[in-house]
Amino acid sequence: MPSYRSRRIVDPVEQAYVEVMARQFGRANADHPNIQALRRIVPFDFFAMSGMAPFGLGVGRGVMLATDMPEDFIRKFLAEKLYPHDPLSFLVTPVNPWGSWHDLEPDALTGTGIPRIRALEREYGITTRTVVGFFNGDERYGGVTFCRSSPFSDNETFILEMATRVVHAELSDKFLSDMNSHMGLSAGELLCLGHFANGYDISEIEEATGYTTETIYSYSKSAAKKLGARARTDAVAEAMRRKLIA
């Protein structure tokens, strides 16, 4: 399954824990009510929603936010490193965010990895895949794959994109909240980071919180460690990206 890969998570044990969390999270949202309502308007067989919206958290190769695709299909697809051989990996661009196997020319079906991709699709009953990518400028941070044997109309793709952008933002925030809970930042650590973010110096934080200088330094140091940041300013920036502080 796709996994959360923060640029700052380097410990393999921590990464493994997060990958399990991401996998469970995606399955838990397979029956999201908005997706089910959307499905009644625009029918499709399977879907997979991935990526993290907050800037700087590892982009769209991050999290499987929601999916009902067969887990073994996704696992094998990733384990066998088939994504770079999938035409959809380069067809989807900021200018043309939609791509579909329905639209592929014959010469696009002769590349390395294509036979294996098609074999996996047949094995797990995956109908023709169509993808919409979500971009921040030129950077792709996520998207949604839809499977259906017949092509989607322009009206259908419009509805799919508008509806899933809302769900993507919601689930992105929810997963981020779950991740932040796992990190275990204390109220004191968050309070100090928040004051630093607002431009307070040590003496001002002492006055606002009643903490000693030693306590403030201790909180900022431990918060930076939990966030995987090298320095206090980096910790503040990371906390803001994660929406831990405003």
From TrEMBL:
<dbReference type="InterPro" id="IPR036693">
    <property type="entry name" value="TF_LuxR_autoind-bd_dom_sf"/>
</dbReference>
<dbReference type="InterPro" id="IPR016032">
    <property type="entry name" value="Sig_transdc_resp-reg_C-effctor"/>
</dbReference>
<keyword id="KW-0238">DNA-binding</keyword>
<keyword id="KW-0805">Transcription regulation</keyword>
<dbReference type="InterPro" id="IPR000792">
    <property type="entry name" value="Tscrpt_reg_LuxR_C"/>
</dbReference>
<dbReference type="InterPro" id="IPR005143">
    <property type="entry name" value="TF_LuxR_autoind-bd_dom"/>
</dbReference>
<dbReference type="GO" id="GO:0006355">
    <property type="term" value="P:regulation of DNA-templated transcription"/>
</dbReference>
<dbReference type="GO" id="GO:0003677">
    <property type="term" value="F:DNA binding"/>
</dbReference>
<feature type="domain" description="HTH luxR-type">
    <location>
        <begin position="182"/>
        <end position="239"/>
    </location>
</feature>
<keyword id="KW-0804">Transcription</keyword>
<dbReference type="InterPro" id="IPR036388">
    <property type="entry name" value="WH-like_DNA-bd_sf"/>
</dbReference>
<dbReference type="Pfam" id="PF03472">
    <property type="entry name" value="Autoind_bind"/>
</dbReference>
<protein>
    <submittedName>
        <fullName>Bacterial regulatory protein, luxR family protein</fullName>
    </submittedName>
</protein>
